[in-house]
Amino acid sequence: MTETIRTAALAGATLTSGLVAGLFFAFTCAVMPGLAATDDRTLVGTMQSINRKILNGWFLGAFLGALLLLAVTAAAHLTRGGPVLLWTVAALACYLVTLGVTIRLNVPLNDRLEAAGPVDRIADLADVRLWFEAAWVRWNLVRTLSSVAAFACLIAALLTRRG
């Protein structure tokens, strides 16, 4: 594999994982604390809307693209070994945590929130908020930390490259 492909894959993995880490970080630092200060109707309705709108090409391209580019980067450095491979494998492991938490924990919470129905028809918004908010925030923090760790590992990989 050429050095150009190795470099492009590593740069792409770093970029996409950074975008994902930034998104989850924004939810941790601003979106969820902002919604925590609102009433039940606002939090539930807003999160239902966000959960519908986030499923778009920009998000899916970065979220799934990071995984693909991490795998390509690791494969591209297998024959070379060294610190770039180690940092990339560490990044891949961290990103797999991000992926797993998202698929197995946050998405089911999102689906359950959507299944509660339109905000105008939910009889007990406080109950919906109670089972959703704390669990979603906790698992988002986990995926924030794992995605930031993946991004940091990829920065280390870039810094240890020998060309």
Query: Strand share of the residues?
Result: under 5%
User: What is the chain-wise order of helices and strands?
Assistant: HHHHH
Largest sheet: none
| Total number of distinct structural domains | 1
Rg over CA atoms, rounded to whole Å, is 18 Å
Quaternary structure state of the chains depicted = single chain
Measure the end-to-end span.
13 Å
Global mean pLDDT: 96
Q: What general outline do the C-alpha atoms trace? A: elongated
Q: Segments where pLDDT lies below 50 for 5+ residues?
A: none
What's the number of helices? 5
The assigned structural class equals: mainly alpha
Task: Bin the helical content.
Answer: over 70%
Q: Total number of β-strand segments? A: 0
Keywords: Membrane, Transmembrane, Transmembrane helix
Protein name: DUF1772 domain-containing protein
Organism: Micromonospora peucetia
Brief summary of the model shown:
This protein has 163 residues and is mainly alpha-helical. It is 85% helix and 0% strand. Keywords: Membrane, Transmembrane, Transmembrane helix.
Supply the key terms.
163 residues, mainly alpha, elongated
Can you give a write-up of this model?
The chain is an all-alpha fold. The chain has one domain (3-160). Helices cover 85% and strands 0% of the residues. Helix 3 (57-76) runs antiparallel to helix 4. The longest helix has 36 residues, at 125-160. The model has no long low-confidence stretch (mean pLDDT 96).
